[in-house]
Write a structure and sequence with these properties.
With 526 residues, the chain is an all-alpha fold. The protein is built from 21 helices and 2 strands. It has a two-stranded antiparallel sheet with strand order 1-2. It is a multi-pass membrane protein.
């Protein structure tokens, strides 16, 4: 089976064109503009998901796909690259975008007149571009595209808490972007190239001090964007402020772009530092898990609890990265494969949880867990309560959900390589997560109803009910399917992990020419 590499442009171009097509309808007034923007977005995310699935099937057969834009060879032109990890992330993003568009149709209020759907498509374009970028500068560019779109989505509605949360979000992310850009400048000034395959060839020849500086700057920048300890504080202060459809998409997706870049950059460009800094990476993972779960137990609104759990759960993914270079009886790729599996689980389940929690908040007009303001939803909205319960148990790692198999895989990897402390931390955090989810369930769904159901609530209107519940049910069903069919899913994760760890295969697929003067070598007399 062969696939035309031009397909790699589609996940970037399609959302961009659809977003641009939807914007002019704003001049027609709210009713017509909202209707057409919704239709365009629904078609675009469906087509985007179909293309991602094609790429997934192709790459999980062991293939890599490379597109040299304008037929310029690497590193002179722009390289777009896809392997198993890229395709998995594109597919997950496509699933979340598809679910979010329909959820937004069922729950969105006046924000529809503010170009919600075009902004969502611009964000989708930026995320897809980050997953496909084959050079580090265009990775930076796509990060900035998704940052601009996400800031606009965070502040839709213009409420005071949204503006405060949005400013906190954008300022701290811009600081991380500045560090990222500084690292790019150091790289280019030293080795004379930004193509990632070319960098994989040349960076090992650069001075050790330069390698350490760049690896450190990128670790700080990507850790901030991923919400890792101690750079997570922007996340719980901003994710609970926008409309639930925005929170759900952000919570399931945006921090995972930072995790993806860590998975991509370090095995390719800094494999020695994965071994040398293993203790540091595992310590960051452990403190991230603990900080997130303790924070979740200390706050009292449903979306802030779930926002802190985003922090806690990305710690598990970084645990997989920390175990990537540890070789045990299970094989060299097992730890990273377990991290990828956990990434798949979390993106699906966290989006479902935030959608269900957001719907509950809209139903009663409050997300507070104090004074039983959310209580009684089990009897009044049993389907919503049922879906929330299954997603919560999956997040906590209760079998047979995807959370159970992904946490078990990470635990196996840690025990197989003798990392007992991080194994104990992951078990303890799993138990605390279960306690937090039980507390959240009790306060939000049990008991007697205190607050009335709002007449404008989406589940009170039959024509909007399925638009709200369908995407949540789809994601919960996917989580259950991953748990029940964990063997094939783990094999796919292992294929992706092996491709990520195969530096020579990446370089050969991109095939960069080496006819550029290596200034770093010349300056240091090497």
């Amino acid at each position: 089976m062969t696939l035309n590499p031009n397909w790699l442009a589609a996940p970037i171009v399609l959302p961009l064109l659809a977003a641009a097509l939807g914007l002019p309808f704003t001049r027609w007034g709210y009713r017509n503009a909202g209707r057409w923007q919704r239709r365009i977005a629904a078609v675009a995310v469906t087509a985007n998901l179909a293309i991602a699935l094609v790429l997934l099937v192709y790459t999980l057969q062991g293939h890599r796909l490379v597109l040299q834009m304008g037929l310029w060879p690497a590193p002179f032109g722009i390289t777009v690259f896809a392997d198993g990890l890229s395709a998995i992330m594109l597919t997950l993003t496509g699933i979340l975008a598809f679910a979010t568009v329909f959820y937004a149709m069922g729950t969105l209020d006046q924000r529809a007149r503010m170009n919600y759907f075009p902004l969502l498509l611009f964000l989708l374009m930026g995320v897809n571009g980050a997953f496909l970028a084959g050079d580090i500068f265009n990775l930076y560019v796509f990060f900035e595209v998704l940052l601009m779109a996400s800031f606009a989505l965070l502040t839709l509605g213009g409420q005071r808490n949204q503006i405060n949360g949005g400013i906190r979000y954008v300022v701290l992310n811009l600081l991380a972007s500045t560090l990222f850009l500084a690292a790019v400048g150091v790289i280019y000034g030293t080795v004379g190239t930004l193509n990632m395959a070319h960098l994989a060839q040349r960076l090992p020849q650069a001075p050790q001090s330069v390698q350490t500086l760049v690896a450190g700057l990128l670790l700080i920048a990507f850790s901030s964007k991923a919400g890792l300890f101690p750079l997570f504080f922007w996340l719980p202060g901003s994710y609970h402020t926008p409309h639930p459809s925005v929170t759900a998409f952000f919570g399931g997706l945006l921090t995972k772009v930072g995790i993806y870049t860590l998975f991509r950059i370090y095995p390719l460009l800094f494999p020695e530092y994965l071994s040398r800094w293993q203790a540091l990476i595992l310590a960051i993972a452990g403190f991230t898990m603990l900080t997130g779960v303790f924070g979740a137990m200390a706050v009292n609104t449903i979306r802030r609890v779930l926002s802190f759990h985003i922090i806690s759960q990305v710690g598990y993914m970084v645990m997989g990265l920390g175990l990537a270079m540890s070789v045990g009886q299970l094989g060299p790729s097992f730890g990273l494969a377990a991290g990828i599996l956990y990434l798949v689980h979390h993106m699906i389940v966290k989006t479902a949880l935030l959608m269900a929690g957001g719907a509950a908040e809209i139903e009663v007009g409050s997300g507070s867990l104090l004074r039983d303001q959310l209580s009684g939803l089990l009897t009044r909205r049993p389907m919503l309560a049922f879906l929330f319960f299954f997603a919560a148990m999956s997040l906590a790692g209760v079998p047979p959900s995807s959370g159970f198999v992904s946490k078990l895989s990470l635990l196996q990897a840690a025990l197989d390589t003798g990392h007992w402390l991080i194994a104990a931390v992951s078990l303890g955090v799993g138990l605390l997560t279960l306690m937090s989810m039980v507390r959240l369930w009790q306060k939000a769904f049990f008991g007697q109803a205190v607050q009335p159901i709002y007449p404008i609530a989406p589940l009170a209107q039959p024509q909007r009910r399925w638009l709200t519940l369908f995407p949540i049910a789809l994601l919960v069903a996917l989580s259950l399917a991953i748990g029940l069919f964990s063997g094939p899913v783990f094999r796919w994760s292992d294929i992706a992990a092996r491709q990520v760890l195969d530096r020579e295969g990446y370089i050969q697929a991109v095939a960069p020419t080496d006819q550029i003067e290596f200034l770093g070598m010349k300056d240091h007399g090497e």
